[in-house]
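Interim report to the steering committee. The following record documents the input for Helix-turn-helix (173 residues).
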Amino acid sequence: MKDRLAQFLKSEGLTAVKFAEIMEVQPSSISHLLSGRNKPNFDFISRILLRFPSLNPDWLINGIGEIYKSNPKNRNSPNTDVNENRITNVTETNGTIQTENKDTVRQGDMFEYSLNKEDKDISENDNDPVTVVNSRIPDKTMTEGNDASRADRKSISRVIIFYADGSFDEYRN
């Protein structure tokens, strides 16, 4: 893939530094990709394909097909693939879009999320009241019921601290 990336940069007339600037990455990242030290990850490949829509993903990833999806001289122009037979008179009135063949589309319909039956059942249950249960565990302090055990406690008579250099300190009670 490093060879295909180098070939793509050459065909676009880009230096590694300019390509890094376009991709919004450090130039050293591109240098490491081109030298074979690192391999491009999914995020990087996705960014390449988003910034260069005419680049053929099959060619970039697998080396299959041509470098560009379409004619190379049109590669820098925006994607204008439109079926002109489908274009009709379009007018917008009161938030609705109407075409010549009287199809009516409400604005926003294209991106609205439709819930399936299971999601509707779940969302209906979201309005159920929630019962809060006090599950606090009472704190135990050292003084509660531990007076008898305090008397049985052993006292510390000596503490020795060893240091990394081989020395030590001894503390006696």
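The chain has a mean pLDDT of 72. The committee is asked to note this result when reviewing the revised timeline.
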